[in-house]
Amino acid sequence: MTRTTIAFLGQCQTSGYRGVPADVAFPQICRRVLEARRPDTRVDVVIEEYQHPSELPHATGRVLRARPHVVVLEVVGWLAVKSGAAVDLSKLPRGIRSAYDRARHFRRVTNYISAKIPEATQLIHRVQTNAHALAGGLLRPLLPRYPRPTLAEYESFVDGAVAQIQERSETTVVVQGPGAPNLALEARGIPTNMPERYREVEQMARRVAETRGALYVDRWSTITPRFFLPGSIKPQAEGHTVWGNLLAEELLAAGLV
After folding, report:
1. b vs e for 75-111, b when ≥16 Cβ sit within 10 Å of the residue's Cβ?
2. In angstroms, rounded to a whole number, what is the distance separating the alpha carbons of residues 210 and 100?
3. Where are the beta strands (DSSP E) in the chain?
4. Which domains does the chain have, with CATH numbers?
5. ∠ Cα 205 17 5 (to 5°)
């Protein structure tokens, strides 16, 4: 039996959220497809979240300690939804930042437990969701006050993470671009040029992958009418199934598994 480790750098889409527990998020779908197609291979999944591009250097360093064979770096379009970028969490007051960090650490630990004890997944997911709801409640009123990175800054951090991973000769990096946005959203504050902003993020991710010679997984055209949770930019379970199968096929076609 061959063992291979695939690490994921991403947001909640990699680790699950309300309505999509970790065991049906796309990394676990990808794992199951790979193991079905390669019965002599056991795939171990490692997930490390980053919520702001400035966290990528440290998140990448943590994920490389697991000595993965493949690192999948997820570039997301949600940065383009509000003012074109995400809030720099490092600029938040210490108390708020600490509450968020504790919730994020709890998510990492519980994801590990869920992978080892599948029957505990549902209970853990309920507790985990409540923890992040608490942290999100603390953050939400503060978000408009703190700086957001430009697309160029996001690109510089993505490029740096890819270069950092490629320093490990035994590790291959894969860049995943965002899918197209949910055009059915009617929330206030959503810019009218949201598709263009998402497309800029997609082009940025593709550009970094091509410049660095990394495999690029194009998810732009994967969106269907039933892809998103109602009123959300987050995929529902069917969307994660699409993304998990797509990633597995790309990894197999590239000979990475």
Report:
1. bbbbbbbbebbbbbbeebeeeebebbeebbebbeebb
2. 34
3. 2-10, 41-49, 70-74, 172-176, 215-217
4. 2-86+148-253 (3.40.50.1110)
5. 60
pLDDT digits (tens, 9 = 90+) for 100-150: 454 554 455 555 545 555 554 444 444 444 444 444 444 444 444 445 567
Contacts (Cβ under 8 Å, ≥6 apart) of 232: 182, 185
Backbone angles phi, psi at 219, to 5 degrees: -105, 5
Backbone φ and ψ for 76, nearest 5 degrees, come out as -110, 150
Closest C-alpha among 204, 221, 217 to residue 175: 217
Q: Are 197 and 81 in contact (CB under 8 A)?
A: yes
Q: Among 257, 235, 239, 251, which residue's Cα sits nearest to residue 78?
A: 235
Sheet with strand 70-74: strands edge to edge: 41-49, 2-10, 70-74, 172-176, 215-217
Phi, psi values for residue 80, rounded to 5°: -85, -5
pLDDT-derived band of residue 74, with 50, 70 and 90 as boundaries? very high
- The first and second tokens of residue 38, run together, are 């390669």
- Dihedral-angle region of residue 231 (phi above 0 means left; psi in -120 to 50 means alpha; beta otherwise): left
Residue with token string 């608490």: 134
Please tell me whether residue 154 adopts helix, strand or coil conformation.
helix
137: tokens are 């409640």
Q: What is the mean pLDDT of residues 226-246?
A: 93
Token pair in block for residue 117 = 């004890």
